[in-house]
Amino acid sequence: MGHRWESQDWEFQDKGPQERNGNAEVDMTGKTPQFIDYSGSRAPDKHTHGDHSLDLWEPMIVPKEDIDAEIDRLASLAKPNNGVRRSRIVHPRSVNEKAHSWAPGVDVSLDVLLPGERTKAVRQNSGVVNFCIQGSGAMVQNGKSSGFGQYDVVTTPSMWVHEYVNDTDEIQVRLRYSNGALLERLNIHFIDENPPMHGARDDDLTETAEEIAEGGGGDDVGAGPTIALDFPLEWGLLIGVLGVAVLISAY
User: Fold this and answer.
1) Between 227 and 129, whose confidence is greater?
2) Residues 147/216, Cβ–Cβ less than 8 Å
């Protein structure tokens, strides 16, 4: 893979007359909204709705030796404060973007969990698909534990509280796929690292936008946003297959 890019802390705060655009700040002083004419239908000399030609990202292969080296590096780290050893696999087009994705709408990471370890609970409004490439373990999702082994695919719907568990004596390695990259590009990706406890009432996990806006919810635990673009099961199965075909072809 050649180079390593470290993750960055992305902070969003009031910049006054400036607007954050990825890594750069754009001076908005004196700028106002504009009216742009979209009247009529598209014609050869008039792209009313913009240029819709496809800009496909170049296909790439991650060699086995690079994956193995990154597994070793992650395994050598001291246990992170949330228990997550993770490395994003980033397409060259996305290295300098906030999304750090493998494709425009999909991010891919390599996750490692050592024997006896367990991650802290988390939830997000993106869907997640895990493909186990080494070892085995379990996932606890909304209070229910499901075991998995090598080459199993496990899906996590949006806003489900979940943890990863390695209750074996072997290292656990997973490829983790998510549509979080799409939500990052829309600036609506929500990650809750202090979610409600497993077993909380269903409505604790699906607080409505109206209740949040009104400051309601009473004593409900863990109110979250309602922007929850589910990852359909079909996507999960497709991505699992792509994981084998694209990233594990050399593995």
Assistant:
1) 129
2) no
Fold held by 64-247: Jelly Rolls (2.60.120)
* Residue 236 φ then ψ, to 5°: -60, -45
Statement: residue 249 has pLDDT above 50: no
Question: Using CA atoms, how far apart are residues 48 and 37, in angstroms rounded to an integer?
Answer: 8
Q: Can you tell me which residue has the tokens 């754009």?
A: 26
For residues 158 and 124, what is the distance between their CA atoms, to the nearest angstrom? 6
Whole-structure pTM over 0.90, yes or no? no
Rounded Cα distance between 34 and 24, Å, is: 22
Buried b (16+ CB within 10 A) or exposed e, 200-211: beeebbebeeee
Rounded to 10 degrees, what is the CA torsion of 170, 166, 175, 23?
-120
Angle at 179 between CA 243 and CA 70, to 5 degrees: 50
Instruction: Indicate whether 50 pLDDT > 70.
Output: no
Closest CA to 188 of 197, 198, 179: 179
Going from the C-alpha of 236 to that of each of 2, 119, 157, the distances in angstroms are 29, 22, 10
Q: What is the pLDDT of residues 80-100, one digit of tens each?
A: 999 999 999 999 999 998 899
Q: Is 120 exposed, middle or buried (0-12, 13-18, 19+ CB in 10 A)?
A: middle
What DSSP element (H or E) covers 164?
A: strand 162-165
